[in-house]
Amino acid sequence: MSPIPQIALTDGHRIPQLGYGVFKIPPEQTERAVTQALELGYRHIDTAAVYGNESGVGRAIAASGLAREELFVTTKLWNDRHDGDDPDTAVAQSLERLGLDRVDLYLVHWPTPAADNYVHAWEKLIGIRDRGLATSIGVSNFLPGHLQRLLDETAVVPAVDQIELHPAHQQPEVTAFCAAHGIRIEAWGPLGQGKYDLLELPEVTGPAAELGRTPAQVVLRWHLQHGHIVFPKSVHPERLRENLDLFGFELSDAQVAAIDALDRPGGAGRVGPDPTVLA
Ligand code: NAD
Question: 109, 80 in Cβ contact below 8 A?
Fold first, then answer.
C-alpha cells in the first residue's frame, strides 16, 4: 500500500492526511478499535476529551510498541473548559489519560460564540503550545468571523480548522478563508456520518463502478484530491482497510466536479450542530 501523504502545516510541522477518528466509539471498545487501526497501518488518531475514550486511545498507543514520533495524536478542549486557567488543567488531564507528555495537535473544539470566550481559550492554547504540551494548535467548527477575531486579537494563525465537511455541506466560505490564511482543513463527518444517502448517489456510485472501488472510497478520495485531512470512523476491519486504501486510484476532474455539485448551500446539507448556536 502506498504511504499516507504528509500535509505541511503553516507552523512548520506535518500531519498525515489520513487518520482514524474515534467519535462515538464506546470507551470499553476503544483500545481494541485503535489497536486494530494501528495494526492496519493508521498512524494518526483523532479523539477529544468529550468523547470519553482518551484512556482507551492511550492504552492502545502504549501497547502498540510504536515510537512516539511515528504517531500523530489530536485531542480537543471541551466547551465548558474555556475560562480562566481551566484549559491548562484540561490539557493536563487529557495528556494523563492518553499517557503522553505532548499531543501533536490540540484544538478548541467549538467556538461557543454566546459565551464569548473563544479568544481567551485560544490564548491559553498558545501558552500550551509554547510550553511544549502540544506541538501544533488549531480550532474546530470556527467560521470566518471567529477565525478573523483570532487573527486580529492574537496574530497566531491556527494550524487547522476541523469542520463538518462532506459533499452536501462543503462550506465554501470557510474553506476560502482558510486557504487565504494558510489554515489547513480537516473534514469531520467526511462520509456525512452515514446520515444521508451519500453512498447511493449516482455521482458516487458511478465512479465507484468505473474504478472498481467502493462508494466510501470514492468520497474519501474526493476529499484527498481537495487537500482535506480526513479521519473516517469505523470499527469494522474491512471498512478500516478500505478507508486506508485510497492511494492506488484517482478521480478524474469531471468526477470531482460532479461531486462538487452536490453541495447544498446555506447549511441545508449540515448533519451536525450549527457552530453559531452550539453553546
Ligand atoms: P464519518 O463521516 O466518518 O462517518 C462514520 C460512519 O460512516 C460510520 O459510523 C459508518 O457507519 C460509516 N462508514 C465508515 N466507513 C465506511 C465505509 N468504508 N463504508 C460504508 N460506511 C462507512 O463521521 P464521524 O465519525 O462523525 O467523523 C469522523 C471523525 O471526525 C470522528 O470520528 C471524530 O474524530 C471527528 N469529528 C469531529 C467533530 C468536531 O466537532 N470536531 C465532530 C464529529 C466528528
Answer: no
Distance 153 CA to ligand 1 centre (A): 33
Residue 136 bridge partners (DSSP):
105
In angstroms, rounded to a whole number, what is the distance separating the alpha carbons of residues 225 and 236? 25
215 pocket-lining for ligand 1 (C-beta < 6 Å): no
Ligand 1 nearest-atom number relative to CA 238: 18
Q: How many whole angstroms separate alpha carbon 71 and alpha carbon 45? A: 8
The per-residue pLDDT for 155 is: 87
Number of domains comprising the chain: 1
DSSP state of 65: -
Candidates 43, 37, 61; CA nearest to 239 is 37
Q: What would the pLDDT profile of 39-83 be if each residue is shown by its tens digit?
A: 999 999 999 999 999 999 999 999 999 999 999 999 999 999 999
| Residue 246 belongs to some domain of the structure | no
Q: List the CATH number of the domain containing 65.
A: 3.20.20.100
**Ligand 1, atom 29, residue with closest C-alpha:** 21
Q: Looking at the domain assignment, is residue 267 inside a domain? A: no
Is 209 inside a domain boundary? Answer: no
Containing structural domain, residue 73: 7-196+227-234
For residue 137, the SS3 value is strand
> Cα dist. 30→36, 61, 81, 192, 200 in Å?
10, 11, 24, 22, 29
State pTM to two decimals.
0.98
Residue positions annotated with a catalytic role: 51
Q: How many residues does the chain have?
A: 279
Q: Is residue 50 part of a domain?
A: yes
